[in-house]
Amino acid sequence: MRTRLLSAASLLCFATLPAFADPLPSWNDTDTKSRIIAFVDATTDTASDDYVTPADRIAVFDNDGTLWAEQPVYFQLLYAMDRVARMAEDDPSILTSDVLKAAANGDLEGALANGEDGLIEIVVTSHSGLSVSAFEQDVSDWLETAVHPQTGAPIIGMVYQPMLELLSYLRDEGFATYIVSGGGIHFMRAFAEDVYGIPPQQVIGSAGKSSYAVIDGVPTIMKDPGIAFVDDKEGKPIGIDTKIGKRPILVGGNSDGDFEMLEWATAGDGPRLGMIVHHTDADREWAYDRDSHIGSLSRGLDESDARGWLLIDMAGDWANIWP
Amino acid sequence: MRTRLLSAASLLCFATLPAFADPLPSWNDTDTKSRIIAFVDATTDTASDDYVTPADRIAVFDNDGTLWAEQPVYFQLLYAMDRVARMAEDDPSILTSDVLKAAANGDLEGALANGEDGLIEIVVTSHSGLSVSAFEQDVSDWLETAVHPQTGAPIIGMVYQPMLELLSYLRDEGFATYIVSGGGIHFMRAFAEDVYGIPPQQVIGSAGKSSYAVIDGVPTIMKDPGIAFVDDKEGKPIGIDTKIGKRPILVGGNSDGDFEMLEWATAGDGPRLGMIVHHTDADREWAYDRDSHIGSLSRGLDESDARGWLLIDMAGDWANIWP
Ligand SMILES: [Ca+2]
Ligand SMILES: [Ca+2]
Fold first, then answer.
1. Which CATH number belongs to the domain containing residue B251 in this structure?
2. For residue A128, what are the domain limits?
3. What angle do CA A98, A102, A105 make, to 5 degrees?
4. Is residue A21 included in any domain, yes or no?
């Protein structure tokens, strides 16, 4: 599983930088960058009042819109549609609804026509009935060739270089970096270690039901229909409590789905840093916030100042966006 | 939370031993000890065909009956009964059933009289309606004085010294050690780090429902009535998949509730070690297996030889049992 490294991923650089080098070269020299570095310096300097022991240096990040792009739809939906199309080649009778037929035809508008119910139908159909290991291999295979529907760029290359640098920087400074995302846990694990350097046990996400069975003599964990956990909104602090059991000291998100996680983490004692990636760059990426059908950011935008959260201005703070 | 170290726990020793010392001094020089050391040597020697990269050196252990004692009832039930009694002092109206009344009176027989339904009633009553942090502090406080109902020994001292040594030895050899237990995740986290050296993110267990709320301005995770996940039998491999995302190479358990976890983990490619603590020592601990109402071991006993699992004979393999 995940043995074939994605070609685009292999271009991403996680090299440890010498201490005198700029740890965040793709960040412009703005207040945002200064505040991040000041926070890391303060929490890792044993002489600082804000020193935090390495065991408590927990940093968590949302994935869609925070570590990689999410427009025009979550990339996991693109995968789900592709898999429905491949499943229908073997067995057209699985296309039991207009939404599934649209998904199989690559018709994004049709796939979205039934709102959330339709999306769940596409995801459940495509994400169940196979083993966890077969599923992760299938995602990994898909990512080798999947391209963005608008730009034609490889999906796996649509990760944010500044955030890759931030993840590496934090790890170099003794932080444990976690993903805490509404995305599917097995979907993300298929690439999180190769692309973000985040191992499977540090990926927290939504999960479908699963079951254990010995199939033809082989002990197997199967992905079943149905949803076991939704790691979004208040689900994010709950997921962190259940899986990590500690309150993170650094949290990054991009939408109001991250609000509760930011609120909970930054309310803890001692130094805390909350950050929100604000999509302000229509030229190099996308510009959207309050009215976006995906990654909507409204309350976070209204309250980030009063709460002391760092609003990352993608257009102004990031020198480069893509690797 | 957990700031007051338990007095008995502070006596436990986790010192790193020099390489030439016996890493398992409380284990007799039997085949069991030889097989454990041979497995660790083979998986950590880069020249060995069975070498395993540190990232894949995942070791998981059941808790009740594997790392600490479990007779005459799970110690978590003793805590639950004690908490029901304290809750009833404040508000006697919570004692709405005979089982809860028995629990409040410390009447173990009465608490068990209604079988599993009664136990769930006692656990749900005592494990909900407070925040996670208040709950963990309450467990920690209880453990400072809780004694065993039969022996009067401190509960926190009823951990197995040979297993403490095994946990330390494995960590010294680059293994990550996890608990995977049917016990409650927040209950175990209250002592797992102090007593076993296992941090909260490496404790996997059963979980009640929880919710996130801002209470009097304080973001809080509350423990609610109801059960979210049962980490027993087939739930153990599922819990490991969800939280670790890798198949362990070493698994320790003691009852048929660990069967599926042992089966799944030892079926993986490469070197694997499954072990079962067999309670054979009525003099120093307890002797029980097939017919025990708690920690019943039957299928594991029948199949351990054929499956190559190591059956640990507590009476013969352990020189000391208690710290
Ligand atoms: Ca997001
Ligand atoms: Ca057990």
1. 3.40.50.1000
2. 75-145
3. 140
4. yes
ipTM: 0.92
Cβ(A55)–Cβ(B199) below 8 Å: yes
Distance of CA B223 to the CA centre of its chain: 21
- Check whether residue B123 and residue B16 sit in a common domain: no
B177 with B304, same domain: the answer is yes
Tell how many helices (H) and how many strands (E) occur in chain B: 12, 9
- pLDDT of A306 reads 97
B64 and B86, same domain (yes or no): no
Give how far the C-alpha of residue B133 lies from the chain's centroid of Cα atoms, to the nearest Å. 20
pLDDT in tens, A22-62: 999 999 999 999 999 999 999 999 999 999 999 999 999 99
Residue B323, domain member (yes or no): no
Report yes or no: B53 at the A interface, CB cutoff 8 Å: no
Show which of B109, B124, B145 is a domain's final residue: B145
Above pLDDT 70, what percent of chain B?
Answer: 94
**A241 → chain B, closest CA residue:** B221
Per-residue tokens: B278:
């067999």
Which residues from chain B sit within 8 angstroms of residue A267, using beta carbons?
Answer: 218-219
Separation of alpha carbons B130 and A66, rounded Å: 33
Q: Are residues A156 and A141 in the same domain?
A: no
Site from B238, B240, B251, B260 to mutate, A interface, most A CB atoms within 10 angstroms: B238
- Chain A residues with beta carbon closer than 8 angstroms to that of B189: 245
Q: Do B219 and A189 touch (CB under 8 A)?
A: no
The per-residue pLDDT for range A179-207, each reduced to its tens digit, is: 999 999 999 999 999 999 999 999 999 99
- Quick count: other Cβ atoms within 10 Å of Cβ B194? 18
Mean pLDDT of B20-26: 92
Q: Per the domain annotation, does B322 fall within a domain?
A: no
User: For residue A35, how far is the Cα from the chain centroid?
Assistant: 23
Check whether residue A60 and residue A124 sit in a common domain: no
A67 lies in the same domain as A81: no
User: Which tokens sit at B160?
Assistant: 């197995």
- For residues B110 and B243, state if they share a domain: no
- Model pLDDT for residues B50-79, shown as the tens digit of each residue: 999 999 999 999 999 999 999 999 999 999
pLDDT beyond 90 at A12: no
Residue A263 and residue B221: Cβ atoms within 8 Å? Answer: no
Residue after which a domain boundary falls, among B95, B130, B145: B145
User: Which is more confidently placed, A3 or A17?
Assistant: A17
Q: Is B23 part of any domain? A: yes
Q: Above 70 in pLDDT, residue B7?
A: no
Give the ligand with the smallest distance to the CA of A252: 1
- Could you report the per-residue pLDDT of A236-287, keeping only the tens digit for each? 999 999 999 999 999 999 999 999 999 999 998 999 999 999 999 999 999 9
What pLDDT score was predicted for residue A19?
53
* Phi-psi domain of A262 (left: phi exceeds 0; alpha: psi -120 through 50; beta: other): alpha
Q: Which residue of B has its CA nearest to A189?
A: B245
Q: Of A254, A264, A323, give the one whose Cα is nearest residue A289.
A: A254
Predicted confidence (pLDDT) at residue B39 exceeds the cutoff of 90 = yes
Same domain as B139, residue B96: yes
Which residues numbered 179-198 in B keep a CB inside 8 Å of some CB on A? 185, 189
* 3-class secondary-structure state, position B313: strand
Domain count, chain A: 2
A303: distance to nearest CA of chain B, Å? 15
